[in-house]
Q: What sequence folds into this?
């Protein structure tokens, strides 16, 4: 097996920074009252231990997520995310599958600022700023003993849930001038320690996307491209930092959003431009997402 065994003081890691759940926020469906839909998210990591090239791991993380939103008032909206994971790990010992319902997240956002400024050329500058926060509930399974000497980092990162109640801070800013716009979103997830005294590292993620709006009757097309940034603190066991955990990732992003009347569809792909996982032993190869939604 490629993973070095966990002790109370140190870990060695075949796949670091990949576990602990995620909450992607980018271009949102344009909904007046409510929306619901499904999102598919995929990422592929590969690891090869620097000390022994025969020990390797290729991991495929997949999730299908039911998500939705409801405008409580003109300025307040609530959103919920319920993922189901089906992950696959191929290593020098064979192939392992992990499936199950993940941690459910609930979040509220408030429109703290909105403005429309008309220019002399009859174009309008539209701006919106949404701020909010939420909670991630431990509905997914965390069914291993993190302090057991036979538990590996691969086992930790393959867990469907974190086993902890975690908190989310979120912000979104939209700027549009005519057909051109920019969307910037940021999330900070503060993780708590679970009952096994294990804590996934706090995670910051941000995306900046430029888009161009193409409208034809009821059809709207938004090609978009930009950058994504993720930083994750080190995990801890019994408040001791876990070696080789924590990560930094910068990606190029490109995609397209389509909407026809009440139906929305979107895809995007992320490719790494700079990354630091497990001191270079682990690398992200690809991330991708697709979604479909119905607004009413």
A:
């Amino acid at each position: 097996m490629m993973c070095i065994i966990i002790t109370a003081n140190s870990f060695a890691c075949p796949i670091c920074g990949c576990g602990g759940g995620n909450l992607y926020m980018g271009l949102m469906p344009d909904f007046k009252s409510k929306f619901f839909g499904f999102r598919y998210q995929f990422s592929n990591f590969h690891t090869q231990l620097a000390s022994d090239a025969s020990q390797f791991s290729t991991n495929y993380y997949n999730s299908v997520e039911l998500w939705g939103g409801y405008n409580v008032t003109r300025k307040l909206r609530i959103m919920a995310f319920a993922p189901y994971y089906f992950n696959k790990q191929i290593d020098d010992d064979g192939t392992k599958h992990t499936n199950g319902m993940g941690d459910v997240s609930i979040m509220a956002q408030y429109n703290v600022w909105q403005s429309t400024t008309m220019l002399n050329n009859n174009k309008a500058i539209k701006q919106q700023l949404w701020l909010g926060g939420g909670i991630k509930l431990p509905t997914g399974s965390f069914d291993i003993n993190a302090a057991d000497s036979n538990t590996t980092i691969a086992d930790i990162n393959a867990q469907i849930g974190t086993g902890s109640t975690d908190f989310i801070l979120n912000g979104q800013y939209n700027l549009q001038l005519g057909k051109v716009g920019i969307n910037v979103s940021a999330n900070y997830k503060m993780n708590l320690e679970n009952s096994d005294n294990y804590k996934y590292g706090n995670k910051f993620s941000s995306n900046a996307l430029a888009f161009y709006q193409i409208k034809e009757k009821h059809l709207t097309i938004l090609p978009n491209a930009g950058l994504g940034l993720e930083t994750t603190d080190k995990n801890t066991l019994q408040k001791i930092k876990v070696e080789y955990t924590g990560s930094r990732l910068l990606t190029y992003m490109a995609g397209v959003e389509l909407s026809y009347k009440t139906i929305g569809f979107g895809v995007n792909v992320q490719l790494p431009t700079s990354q630091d996982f497990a001191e270079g032993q682990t690398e992200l190869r690809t991330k991708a997402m697709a979604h479909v939604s119905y607004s009413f």
Q: What stands out?
A: The domain at 34-295 is CATH 2.40.160.40 (Porin). Confidence is low (pLDDT under 50) at residues 1-17.
